[in-house]
Amino acid sequence: MDLQKYQKIFSQESDKYLKELDRLLMRVEKNPSDLGLWADIHGKVHSIKGMAKALSLEKISVLSHAVENWCKEFQQGTIDATPGAIQSIFQGGDLLRLLVAQMGEISTAEDQRWYDSLISQFRKGPEQDASGRNRKKSLPTHIHPRAENIDYVRVKYSLIEELLGLSQEIMLLEKSLPPLSLEQISGGLRNWIDDYTSMLKGLHFRLAQLRLVSVTDFADIFVKTIRNLAKENEKEIDFEVIGGQLEADITLFERLREPFVHIFRNCIAHGIESPKEREELGKSPVGKITLEATRKGDSLTIKLSDDGRGIDRVAIAKYLSDKKSLREDEIARMSQEELFDTILSPDFSSAVTTSDMAGRGIGMNVVSQAIEYLGGALTISSEASKGTEFTIKLPVTLSIIYTITFHLGDYILSIPTLNVMSIEQTDSISPDDNNSYYDLKGILGIKNNLKNQHHILTIRHPGEKHIKSDNGGELKILVGDIIGNRQMMVMPVGELLGKSKLFSGVGIMENGEISILLDIESLP
Question: Which of 96, 196, 319, 414 has an alpha carbon 20 to 30 Å from 431's alpha carbon atom?
């Protein structure tokens, strides 16, 4: 595991949650009996605790858990939140911010006393503050209140596009340079041109990143909506995001915002059962909605799923019989895809009564049209009592992913980090051993080099075809030097590379170097 990468993600995500925590605490100070606000506060602290536990950051995990217990009491309304108790949680947030910045380490005796004091206070329980008195803030003497850092500025999207256009024009000027032989150009000038070109590519890379939004940030805009819809329907919902580190163009996400609201609304209104119903079925009373994002080739695939009752096939059959005049045998011969596509019809609804929230069919035609407008495709699968999944495949002109980048012959190639299970180093490969590895060099027409040092990449292959190994879905590839785990801006391959069916994109690294992204699914 690339620990440094995950520590960076933890730091960024925790900073965001702690800023939101401060804002929520300021709101709850004015209305301490608002159980919904306490639920949001509880959620932020719980998220920090979960990430800290995954990284074995014990002190952050323990403090988060202690704060979370208080928030749970206030959320359930079992005890009133006093001004002193709210101030204590403010202090907990301040200390969490310090611990996150130091990756869970305590560097001074004063900070240790602060930590021990707060842990002791939280373990006594919020009832200790029942008198309503304000506790004196137990901040260390060397820490002073300060305003938040300015991490973001508001920039017009049109300005970003203009800057990107200018950087592309400057890069094109390189193409207009007259061809000069090595005799006509000095080594110093050639180095200057190479450095200049590299910096321009790096500049273009960073400008392009201004257009990108992570899946996590996109999903965050729905958290409150899902919570409110669940409360309106007297249901409990957990919302999980998978693949949140992927980034894509903000324009694409903006056009998906309303379609996703339609899907979430219908999942909650019609898909997920009430807590009582779920318990009777042996399910957890808390329903679950999952947003999962993956990048395959030049497409972004987003799956939205719930663990509810599934799509009502009887309602679909009734609609097809009454509105489309289909016979029972014709309906029975329909494929799963054809059957579930019925809910995308403009006049379809499986709801018994009509309301803003009722029926999985409400708004689904709008969703389908919006996705088609983006050049994408929507497929639906569902299983009774198991839930429903909407798979949305969209073309992306630009995205950022992490890749394992390596040399193979004279080429620089990359594989998405999520597909790489392990990397090993070996000094020699016997002819017999060589036959056990996937012949990527042969497929790409790369001559075998004579270097003794090799790296072995074990790849997680998502498909089943052409995999002939004892490890099932694993694929072992011999490569040269490993450049590293790199953040890469990926653009679609051109017509020539696309014909090979071997590559899923052209990547630009932060230093301006180019790498070709292998399409793992399409390897012959």
Answer: 414
